[in-house]
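From the pipeline queue, job 12 of 40. The input is one protein chain; the requested action is below.

Action: predict structure.
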Amino acid sequence: MEKDLIEYIAKSLVDDPSAVSVNETEGEKGMVLQLRVADGDIGKVIGKYGRIAKAMRTVLSASAVKDGKRYSLDILDN
């Protein structure tokens, strides 16, 4: 569910939605979602001063707490 949420938000923000991919991996402190977008869209996902990335992490945390899980979001450049 959280993976789909982040993918939906990212596809809504970028110019090339087909290049958006979200991978879920196990980390030390819980699950980690790794978000990849096209090179030209990385700034749109991070936002000015990282505000959009912070908002995405906040929504992810709120969704995960509801399910009793712990998630973190990594935005990776290609």
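Job complete. The CA atoms of residues 24 and 33 lie 5 Å apart.
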